[in-house]
Design a protein that fits this description.
Layout lengths: L1 H36 L5 H49 L1
Helix pairs in contact: 1-2
């Protein structure tokens, strides 16, 4: 029962984890950019640039780490839909 719940909610949890990863990247980049930017472009501009850089880096990291899991999930859904369509045609 619990394993089925985990499999059914896997997509939603994965989506939530991706958004949280981007938020963590933005906050981390904001802190680093504000600290480093205070000597060059100012704390506010450095923080904004750092947040954008943090989001970009966390997105690229998510592409390499999470994208294969998403591809496998989409393939499983496509195969399941084809199997259900095949069952429907054979019953007619």
């Amino acid at each position: 029962m619990l394993s089925r719940l985990v499999v059914k909610s896997h997509g939603m949890l994965l989506e939530l984890a991706l958004w949280i990863l981007l938020a963590i990247g933005a906050v981390g980049g904001l802190g680093i950019g504000a600290t480093l930017g205070q000597w060059s472009v100012g704390a506010l501009a450095g923080g904004v640039l750092g947040a954008a850089f943090g989001i970009a880096v966390s997105f690229i990291g998510a592409v390499f780490v999470v994208a294969p899991v998403i591809f496998v999930r989409d393939i499983r859904q496509s195969v399941r839909a084809l199997e259900e369509a095949g069952r429907g045609d054979s019953a007619a």
